[in-house]
Design a protein that fits this description.
Blueprint: H1 3-13, E1 26-28, H2 29-35, H3 42-45, H4 47-50, H5 61-67, E2 72-75, E3 78-80
Antiparallel strand pairs: 1-3, 2-3
């Protein structure tokens, strides 16, 4: 998981201020693309790589622990945080 990319996404959409007790935060592939468009490396901006969930061990634990979020499929081209 790329911390810089996800930090940019969280900052752009102010996800850290979202009330997850009421509902999950739904983010579209297009929103992720827009937030990371300025990155140059594929692994920093490609949605399928940023949202890849092989196993919990392969995710960045520091980011998950500090944000208390995980990414899971919601609908076609949308992810749920």
């Amino acid at each position: 998981m790329n911390n810089n990319s996800w930090q940019t996404i969280f900052d752009k959409y102010q996800i850290q201020h979202h009330n997850f007790d009421n509902e999950p935060f739904i983010i579209s592939a297009e929103m992720i693309k827009q937030a990371t468009a300025h990155f140059t490396r594929t692994n920093e901006k490609e949605v399928r790589i940023l949202c890849k969930q092989d196993s919990r061990e392969k995710t960045n634990r520091k980011f998950l622990l500090t944000t208390n979020c995980s990414c899971c499929p919601h609908e076609m081209a949308n992810m749920q945080l």
